[in-house]
Every structure is written in C-alpha cells, then in structure tokens.
Amino acid sequence: MRLTGISAVIFSLTMIPLAAAEDYVSEKVESEARKLIEMSLESTTGYEVVESLTTEVGARLAGSEAEARGREWGVAKFKELGFKNVRVEEFKIPYWERKFEEAEIVSPFPQKLLVTALGGSVATPVEGVEGEIVRFETLQAFKDAPMDSLEGKIVFVDEYMTRTQDGSGYGVAVQKRSGAAIEAGKRGALAALIRSVGTDTHRFPHTGQMRYADGIKQVPIAALSAPDADQLQRALKRGSVKVWLALDVESPGERTSGNVIAEIPGRTDEIVVIGGHLDSWDLGTGAVDDGAGIGITVGAAKMIMDLGKKPQRTIRVVMFGAEEVGLYGAKAYAEMHKDELSKHIVGAESDFGSGRIWRFETRFGEDKLGKAAEMQKILAPLGIAPGPNTASGGPDMIPISQMGVPVVTLKQNGWDYFDLHHTPDDTFDKIDQADMAQNVAAYAAFVWMAANMDGDFRATPAANEASE
Amino acid sequence: MRLTGISAVIFSLTMIPLAAAEDYVSEKVESEARKLIEMSLESTTGYEVVESLTTEVGARLAGSEAEARGREWGVAKFKELGFKNVRVEEFKIPYWERKFEEAEIVSPFPQKLLVTALGGSVATPVEGVEGEIVRFETLQAFKDAPMDSLEGKIVFVDEYMTRTQDGSGYGVAVQKRSGAAIEAGKRGALAALIRSVGTDTHRFPHTGQMRYADGIKQVPIAALSAPDADQLQRALKRGSVKVWLALDVESPGERTSGNVIAEIPGRTDEIVVIGGHLDSWDLGTGAVDDGAGIGITVGAAKMIMDLGKKPQRTIRVVMFGAEEVGLYGAKAYAEMHKDELSKHIVGAESDFGSGRIWRFETRFGEDKLGKAAEMQKILAPLGIAPGPNTASGGPDMIPISQMGVPVVTLKQNGWDYFDLHHTPDDTFDKIDQADMAQNVAAYAAFVWMAANMDGDFRATPAANEASE
Hints:
The structure is a homodimer of 468-residue chains.
Chain A: H1 5-20, H2 27-41, H3 45-56, H4 65-81, E1 84-107, E2 111-113, E3 115-117, E4 129-136, H5 139-144, E5 153-157, H6 168-186, E6 191-195, E7 221-224, H7 226-237, E8 242-264, E9 271-277, H8 287-307, E10 314-320, H9 328-336, E11 344-349, E12 357-363, H10 369-379, E13 385-386, H11 398-402, E14 407-412, H12 417-420, H13 433-452, H14 461-467
Parallel strand pairs in A: 4-5, 5-6, 6-7, 9-10, 9-11, 12-13
Antiparallel strand pairs in A: 1-2, 1-8, 3-7, 4-8, 8-10, 12-14
Helix pairs in contact in A: 1-10, 2-8, 2-13, 3-8, 8-13
C-alpha cells in the first residue's frame, strides 16, 4: 500500500473528481467543524500554550531534568485545561549531554569558529584535536572519494541545504548529519565538521542527532554555522588550513523520559490521536521545534472541549518524549498501545514549526480517499489544498503508521523552519499568533470530523483488491 | 559655528537654491568624478578588501594580537594596491578582554540566558553572583526611581531600541549601555543586565563599550539578547525571578594599538583624509563594523589611482585603531597631526556598515555650502540627497572636526545595521556587493572633487561675520 512518489502524485490529481459525488461528513458535523474553525481563528489558546511551555520550562533535552519538568508542566497544563485521563507513560533512553565545544582556525589565519557538537557525538581528547582540513563538497562526493587514509586530518563536509516550502531539502541535507562521522571513521579521520543542516545565514550552528556504525571508529563531529562554513571555505581557497576542535560531552547511561497523555473521552473506544513532541534540543527553548506542535494540538483539543459536545470517538493528545534523539517516545507509545492500535482510527503529529498549513496529506486506504477529499473541502477556506496519499503523519506517527494506523499530515509552510531548527534562536518570539490560530483551526476541524465520521480510513480488503 | 538641529534643517532647505548660480567644480573635474562613479560601479575592489580583511584576520579586538595582525594586513594591502607613504603610527591603550560569560534563571524556571559582557566591565567573583531581578523599563525610569538600596539585587534595564534609517535610535539606546552600570553602582547592586542595544530578534547579545564613574561602585554588566530579554520579561510577569551571572574578563594594563596610514600624493601639501576603523569587537569578524568602511575608503582611493591622474591635494587613507573602546586612534591621529590640521581640507570616515549612501551631509563654513550643493549634484545620480550642515564626519573624525577640520558624512542606510552591530553575526556574508560599489563610487567622486576644487570648506572670517 505504500505508494511511490510518482503514483502518489497521479493519484492526488484524480482524487478530487472521484470524491465529488460522495458525502461522507454529515451536515451536522460539517457545521460543527466550521464552527470550530471560527472559534479557533479567534482563540489564542494554542499560542498561549507555547508561551507557557517555552517560558516556564525552556529548553527540554531528552532525558534531562528539564524534560522531566516539561512532563510536570504537561500534566498540569492538561488538567488546567480540563482534559481527562491525564497520565505519564515512562520509558528509558540513553542519555547524552553537551558540556563544552570550541573550535579555531589555527593556521594560516588564527580565529574562532562557532561550532556545536551533534547529538550523540563522542568527545575529543580533553586537549582537543588539531588537523589539516580535507573538504568535500557533499556527503556523496566524500563517499565516492578513494578510500585513502585521513589519519590526522579533520574532514569538512560543506554541503548546502536547499530552502523549500515542503521541507524536502532537509531529507537530502540531513544525510550528511547522519552519515559524515561514519565516512570519516572508515578513513580514520581525527574528527568531522559539517556545514550546518539549515537554511539561515546567521552565526548559529545547528545541532541534531548523528549516528555511528558498528565496528567503525567513532570520530567526534560538530556543525559549523553557515558563516563559519563560508569562512573555512574562503580560507581553504587560499591554501592548506589547520583547525583545532575540542568537544566535551557526557553519556552517563540510561535516563527516564516519558509521554504525557490526555483525552477527551468519546462514546466509543475508538481513538483519534494527535500530538507534538515535548523534548527539544538543548540550545534553544524549543518553540518552533516543537512547542508549536504541542500548542497546536493541545489548542485544537481545547477548542473541541469548548464546543461543549461529546465526540463519538475518543480524542487523545500525546506530548511525546525523546523524539529528537531517536523517536523513543513514539516507539514506546507503539509498544505500550499495540493492543489498541486497531482502535486507532487516525493519527497526526504537528512537528514542523508554526507556519500555516497549506496542504492536507493522507495515508488512507485508497478506497477511503473520498473521505480525505471531503475533509479537505472543509479545510479549503483556510487555504489548504488537497495533497498526496503518502503522508508520514509526522515523526512520532511513523511507528504506528508502520503498524497500520492511517495518518494525515496537515502540511505546514516550512520555508523559514530550517532557519531556526535546532539552534539557540528557536525561541518564542519566532511564533506568529495568526499562523498558530490557522493551525489550531485546521487541527480542530480535522479531528472533529475524524472523530465523528462514519467508518474508518483503513483500506477495506475487498476494495483494496479491486483497486490493485 | 555648530548649528543646532533645527537651524541645520532650515539651512539645508535653503542650500540648493543659493548654490544653483555658482559653479565650483570645473567641467574637467566633474567629468573625472563621473568617470570615477562609472568605474566604481563596475569594480569589486572595495568588496574584495572586506573579504580579505575579514577572512585573513577575522575579529580584531582593540589592542589584541589580532588587531596587530590587522595592521600588518593593512600595510601589505596598501602596498599591494600601490599606495605611497604607507606607515603605522602606534599608540597605547588600556586593554580589556572577555574570558567567560554565563547566566541562568535560577528560579522559578531554571534555564540558560545568553549574555555577553559589555566592553570594560569588571568581572564577577569567580562563583558568579546570584540575585533577584529588579527591572526598569528604561534607563530614565531607573534614574528617576527613588535612590533605594539594590544591595543583593541584579538590575535589568529592559529598554528597546528603535529601528531607523539614519541610526538615530542608537543615540538614545546606547545611553543605557553607557549609563546602566553607573546607576546600578550608585544603589549598590550586585550586577546589571541590559536588553542589547540592537534591533534584531536573534539570540545574539550585542557587546559595546560601557563606562564607570569615579567614586561609584563598579558593578559587572552584561547584555542579554533580545529573545533572552523577552524571556526574562515574561518570567517577571509571573513573579519574582532570581538570576545567576558569571563574567570573567582580563584587564592586564596597556597594550599597543595603531593607525595604518597611506597616501596618494598630490601636488600640494593639502590633505583630504578618509578612512574607516581597523579594530572590531571580538564576537564577529567586523565585516559591517567596520571592515566595510575600510573596504569603501580603500576601494575609493584605488579607483582614483586607477584613473591615472595625480590629484591636486594629497589623498590620505587612515585605518584607525582602537575606535570601539574609546576613539583612541582618532585622538592619537589628532594629536600626532595637530601641526598639519590646518592643511586638512576635509575629512570623512565610513563607519556605519555597507548600506547605500542616501544623503550627503557636511560641516562646512556656511559661506561654503554652495560647494556642498555642487558636490551633491554630482552624487545625486547615485540616489544621494542633499543633507544638513551638521555632519559628524564619522566617529574617528570627531577629534579633528572639533579642532576645526571641515567634515562630510556620506550617510548610509542603517536600517539593518543594528541587527548585526557588535554581535557574532557581523560576518562577511552580510555585505552586499552592489551596495559596496555604490559607496565606493560616492567616496571616489567626493574625494576627487574635494582634492581638485579651488579653495577650501572652512568659513572665511569675513563671510562668517556677515552671516552671523
């Protein structure tokens, strides 16, 4: 059922006409959804939730005491807003924390470089490492280069990220964040530096999780801000450049993280699940990543409570823990709730900042796409276009999506998202109140429709066979 | 002769008609000036000079080894470009250097705050200081508050800076940077924090020189980035807030700084002096402040050399040292050259970034304003309007202006300047090549006219009497 990119595009083009004849959302539910949109656009609840989280907790590194305070905040916030069945589901994660990071061009032009360790990186020796820079234009160029020894050298992968509305530039650029240390390790390099995975031109290095591979030397890795990567590139145009890098990190073993869960109970045991992730990287206060997602989904559910009508299905809101460091909360949720996943009608996570939603994407059974079209029609006045049937549902939906739960992505405009993503600059002032309200409106309407429509979004076996 | 603001405006309105009848610039010089504009707009020399300085030297804190490397760079660059009489004029300055800076909200919401020590601040004790925050909306509100003891407290002056084209917001906002530590000292506070003197919303605290006053307790002072000031403000809205601040600085006494000077010799011993300042703050690489000014003035003089004609008057280009920490280079220049200041026909410093020049301001004898109008007419096609006769000439011109040397300010658009000013984000990528070329063109044309016009810009005693 996983469509390829091309077939998805073809399908999305034919989706609307196919659906036009049907009428899946009752007039009553449709009118309630429109009312929710109206209420949400006048509400500041979502915005205030982000303000509260980012101010009263601040940065929330996975597994840290701050993340634990975030869970306390989440429980209190859910209760304050009137949610039911508020609880924390704990799990363990490997903990990693940055302690110190510094870099310098040693020669020929001594000066500081602004760097940040990637999440999961090992430390350098305490005195740092010093080596000649070997630059590669892209990760692919690095992979394609002869397997010569880079002993005593520091690798610099200078790959740029493309700014896009849909965030597709990230998928390409993030491979260098995941893969550069492995390639450097294969060649025995001292350390690796990457141009930050980001689209801004400010002096903020972007952090983010990296990976090592079994049996390959673990080399320390850090990101340079874009201006520092430019500087290193300019220095290299003049000849050989030596850099000193010192990273100190702490990996003391396991720590507790957890998902904070709350509900608006419905009349059945079926579940519509939405949420965002509670953890953030340590550098900023996690406003766009992912305070916004928390604010949007909590805000939308609050609108539904304010509507004063009991939904058919239970609406569950999850603040996932430890997303940034490897989807630990998502995996724990899928494991802990595996017996009720067949009752999960649909899921959606908001984890792409606070930009306006411009497209309604689904991953439904193909015979259920008429329902997607029906929902999109209600969302259209918010400026939301129909989208393909290849939605991920957001990072924390991936495990349950892989286990068969239909998902939607209310796709946000990510044009500016990677200017802030994983930097110190991810702070509350970057959130636009009107954009937040549009997001809340779309989620509230979508959730209300999903919770009150007849039937589900899974492919029916017969219809599925017929369409294949 | 120092006009007040209002009389200057009135004067500037009447300047053009008065001047229209005269013709101070010969047709030959006018045509050469136009040729220089044409050449400059096609040249990248000024831009390349900034690239070279910011890459090959980087940050250049006054009195540091990096500033000394900057002087070596300056000498080499002047020689490479064909300037004559290249030399360094050294002087001593009190040295100050930042070592360490960190701050945290201790309670009720533990989290980091991003701060930077202001230049000249004393250190805190090594364990830092911790105290309750007392916030003042503005420096004036702080001054106006009852002289109650603030022992054990940390003062927070949360004054905003207004974004303006002409930089006038800085004059107001910078008073808090100069004055907050003195007011805090009078009341015995532990430390002082200010909202950065800046117009951006990024997580960069802005440094800059502060002052103490004799006989008043010296309290350590740091700037918060705008998002951190916002955060502290939000926390304070919820009640009492405790902050911990640790600053370490080094003030080991005197160090050497210097002005780097070069010339295009003329036929007379009269001098037209232009320049920028070579030192920068330590956080960025000093691209807009003031690599740009170095690039613009060196680039303009290079255009004149490329014209291949010997000027009447000598054109002198000065890279001033130690501007940021108290105009030491400017004062040293005035002192070392006091005997030839009567031969200084006019001076101009470029020290306001790389934005386009939009106004031609002078401080000439009132009877010489026809000459200003004539020059402005030649500059007008670059989008440069006539300005008032109250120019400062730029910070490093103040001492010689006060000693009677006429000055001009080729006023740049400073709309974005204070987004970058004194932050780590002041890097080469922020410089626009076309804007630089417009600046170089205006300087080249102005300098050529000033160096080749008959007569000077000082008030003639008789005319002066008549006009008063």
